[in-house]
Amino acid sequence: MIINKWKGLIIVKKPVRIYFLCIQNRCRSQIAEAFAKHYGKENVIAESAGLEASEIHPLTIAVMKEVGIDISDHASKKIDMKTFLASNVIVKLCENLIERCPVVPFGITNVQWNILDPLVHSDGDIEELHKTRDEIEKKVIDLLKGMNVTL
Question: Where would one find coiled-coil regions in this protein (predicted)?
Answer without folding.
Answer: none
